[in-house]
Design goal:
The chain is an alpha+beta fold and 96 residues long. It is built from four helices and four strands; from the N terminus they run E-H-H-E-E-H-E-H.
Length: 96
């Protein structure tokens, strides 16, 4: 199943992690854990934000993916299934 993981990092914790070098390591570890097909970084409401699109077949892996990032940078994480336009066409015929 294709999933979208969206995270935000509180400003103070993000600044602390950027200064001590742990921010890059935490993001690298998250990317290594999910092997995303796409990764985007931006700001949301003044906080560091990222979106990773990845495939996962085992929902039991979610704690192993989330917990290290929660601990490292106090991240807020949202995960939800997502579809491409081709997926939508295949399942519903809505998109030409």
């Amino acid at each position: 199943m294709r999933l979208m993981l969206k995270f935000t990092i509180p400003v103070e914790k993000g600044n602390e992690a950027a200064r001590d070098g742990s921010l890059g390591k935490a993001i690298d570890a998250l990317i290594e854990a999910v092997q995303p097909e796409a990764t985007y970084f931006a700001l949301e409401n003044g906080k560091r934000m990222g979106i990773l699109i990845f495939e996962e077949t085992d929902q039991a892996r979610m704690p192993a993916i989330n917990e290290p990032f929660f601990i490292a940078v106090n991240a807020a994480i949202e995960i939800q299934p997502v579809l491409t336009a081709k997926d939508m066409e295949r399942v519903s015929g809505i998109i030409p």
